[in-house]
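Q: Given only this backbone (288 positions), what sequence would you predict?
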């Protein structure tokens, strides 16, 4: 709920909240390489203070709104945050990353995005994921972009879904679903590209426009190496894709890069520029 209340009280408090201003995601759904990759940009204070949550939760009886009995997932986390809002996968083959989006009008009394993306970790297929994102009966109070696929989907379709807060008396999140079919790719940052909505956080919008401009200057990616090259780009000035000036005076840094290889079923984690460094670790995606 970190944005909903401050945004609602913005005219009573003129001090802006310090926050990260960018994460970038690229989906390459190629005939050879199939990649979902993501930069995690965060306040410099969080550098080297993130961790994986690896959980296997078994209940005797189905629990919660979606009657989930068993969950098994891995998610990159910040202290005090629920799993599911960065880069994650579950044992049903769900793989996803999140880009924060900032609508001008947020809705109190609705479901915060962190709760919705946490619920995603229990889903088994795309239909269940849509049900969670719609959050029928309540709807989202704020928004984000979800880049996802299911490894068990025979169509091999990937998706970028923009989620926006509910409108008026509606009780369901607003969603715009973009399919990324085989031989296609998609890039997304921290700006609504398809849902027509008034957006807040001008610095984050400026950063998103700069990063998307950088991506569009490249030829369409064909390989994992192409995607890594794009995510390691340091051109674009202040609002570059990989943010790291080698000093601690930078308010926001790229603290991690994650690369899901959907064919090899692995996840590689980098904390340095992936153009010039090997991953710290490459983990297998353990499926049910």
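A: Predicted residues:
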């Amino acid at each position: 709920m970190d944005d909903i209340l401050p945004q609602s009280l913005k005219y009573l408090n003129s001090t802006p909240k310090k926050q990260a201003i960018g994460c970038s995601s690229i989906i390459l759904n190629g005939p050879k390489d199939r990649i979902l990759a993501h930069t995690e940009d965060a306040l410099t204070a969080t550098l080297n203070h993130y961790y994986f949550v690896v959980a296997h939760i078994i209940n005797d009886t189905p629990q919660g709104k979606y009657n989930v009995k068993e969950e098994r997932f891995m998610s990159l986390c910040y202290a005090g945050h629920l799993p599911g809002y960065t880069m994650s996968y579950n044992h049903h083959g769900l793989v996803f990353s999140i880009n924060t989006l900032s609508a001008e009008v947020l809705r109190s009394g609705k479901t915060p995005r962190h709760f919705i993306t946490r619920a995603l970790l229990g889903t088994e297929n795309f239909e269940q994921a849509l049900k969670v994102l719609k959050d029928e009966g309540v709807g989202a109070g704020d928004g984000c972009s979800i880049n996802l696929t299911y490894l068990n989907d025979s169509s091999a379709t990937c998706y970028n879904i923009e989620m926006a807060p509910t409108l008026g008396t509606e009780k369901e999140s607003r969603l715009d679903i973009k399919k990324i079919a085989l031989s296609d790719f998609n890039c997304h940052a921290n700006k609504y590209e398809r849902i027509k909505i008034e957006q807040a956080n001008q610095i984050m919008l400026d950063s998103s426009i700069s990063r998307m401009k950088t991506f569009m200057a490249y030829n369409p990616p064909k390989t994992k190496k192409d995607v890594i090259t794009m995510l390691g780009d340091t051109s674009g000035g202040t609002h570059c894709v990989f943010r790291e000036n080698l000093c601690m005076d930078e308010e926001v840094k790229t603290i991690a890069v994650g690369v899901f290889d959907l064919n090899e079923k692995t996840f590689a984690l980098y904390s340095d520029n992936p153009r010039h460094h090997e991953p710290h670790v490459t983990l297998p995606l353990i499926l049910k």
